[in-house]
Design a protein that fits this description.
The protein is globular, with a radius of gyration of 15 Å. The chain has 2 domains: about 55 residues, 2,3-Dihydroxybiphenyl 1,2-Dioxygenase, domain 1; about 50 residues, Signal recognition particle alu RNA binding heterodimer, srp9/1 (2-Layer Sandwich). It is α+β, with helices and mostly antiparallel strands. It is built from 2 helices and 8 strands; from the N terminus they run βαββββαβββ. The longest helix is centred in the N-terminal third of the chain and has 12 residues. InterPro entries: Glyas_Bleomycin-R_OHBP_Dase, VOC_core. This is VOC domain-containing protein.
Length: about 120
């Protein structure tokens, strides 16, 4: 398993995108058709930074979650999370074959585990 991406919530999508493109050399690329605006920024062919329009009050953190993957078979991961007793949500990533598990930890920590169907 490896770090998959970092999800950043921002008020000014264009400013964040331009800053990250200029600073890191990432490229804007394909993004699923989410209802909330944002960008996926690619490095070496991988979408490593996801930006998302921030809608909460100012003062809340800008890193929403850290994602890891691939995490293997979704059914096996679900069973493991249930066995460990962790609180989590599960969803399908639109326009893909990825099942996402968002696991909630201490102090509001959110870790996303990305599993592909059929692996």
């Amino acid at each position: 398993m490896q770090l998959d991406h970092v999800n950043i919530h921002v008020y000014d999508l264009a400013a964040a995108r331009d800053f990250l493109v200029q600073l890191l050399g990432v490229e804007v690329g394909w993004r699923p058709s989410f209802k909330v605006p944002g960008d996926w920024l690619y490095l070496d062919g991988r979408a490593v930074i996801h930006t998302w329009l921030k809608s909460q009050e100012r003062g809340l953190g800008w890193v929403d979650h850290i994602a890891f993957g691939p995490c293997g078979d979704p059914d096996a991961k679900r069973a493991e999370l249930q066995r460990l007793g962790y609180s989590f949500t599960e969803s399908e990533l639109v326009d893909t074959d990825i099942i996402q598990f968002v696991v909630y930890g201490p102090e509001g920590m959110k870790i996303e585990m990305q599993c592909r169907r059929g692996t």
